[in-house]
Amino acid sequence: MKKYFIYILKCSDDSYYVGVTSDLLRRIKEHESGKYHKSYTFKRRPVQLVYFEEIENVKLAISREKQIKKWSRFKKEALIKNEFDELPKLSKKNFK
């Protein structure tokens, strides 16, 4: 069964990039080398892989990527630190 990876990169400007791929090592190398000049990470190199998770269903992987992209910086950092009990507390609705 094919595997997909949702990943978070920390960029040189301290921002986070969330992506999905079926080949994590290849994709990280592409980010690091600046293969795609229009990519968010191109001018924010070097990048560092700070989190990834594996999913076997491509639709679920894409859905998960979109979900994480919408999260606040604080919520992404809780995920990176494996502080799963903090995630509900850091929902945007709790900051309103």
TrEMBL record:
SUPFAM superfamilies: GIY-YIG endonuclease. One of its GO terms (molecular function) is endonuclease activity. It comes from the Bacteria. CDD domains: GIY-YIG_UPF0213. Residues 2-78 form the GIY-YIG domain. Pfam families: GIY-YIG. Keywords: Endonuclease, Hydrolase, Nuclease. Belongs to the UPF0213 family. This is Endonuclease.
